[in-house]
Amino acid sequence: MNLTLTQHAESRIRQRGLRESDIPMIVDAGTPVDDDSLLLLAQDVDREIRRRKQEISALERLRGCRVVIAADKVVTVYRPSRRTEKRLLRGQHRHGNASDACRTTNHSSLAGDHANAA
Fold first, then answer.
1. N or C: which end of the chain has fewer CB within 10 A?
2. Pairing status of strand 73-78 against strand 66-70
3. 73: which strand partners?
């Protein structure tokens, strides 16, 4: 959802010690209370913290992994040796345009819906 702030909203954000970047977080995680507003409840915050902790755990577990991709297909997944990792980082590897994977990307067809994971 791409929201635009009115001058009134910009003014209230400043007055109330919030940041413009807070709005998407509230909208994404909040509970609808009527047709045109959301309220970020304690249970919403707890759910989002749990979800993010799970995401952090997954990132820690996947540190150092490599995914080789060709023509939008995953060819292989592995943990390269330190020597191979250094070679990859220097650009001296066999797979020309293969993507290095343990970066955070949105592959929803592979990963599932993170928002519903909690």
1. N
2. antiparallel
3. 70
Residue 68 and residue 57 in one domain: no
Burial class (CB in 10 A: 0-12, 13-18, 19+), 31: exposed
111 is a domain residue: no
Q: DSSP secondary-structure letter at 106? A: -
Phi, psi values for residue 74, rounded to 5°: -75, 120
Structural domain that includes position 76: 63-104
Q: What values do phi and psi take at 47, rounded to 5?
A: -60, -45
- Give how many domains the chain has, as a whole number: 2
pTM: 0.66
Reduced to 3 states (helix: H, G, I; strand: E, B; else coil), residue 66 is strand
**Amino acid at site 28:** D
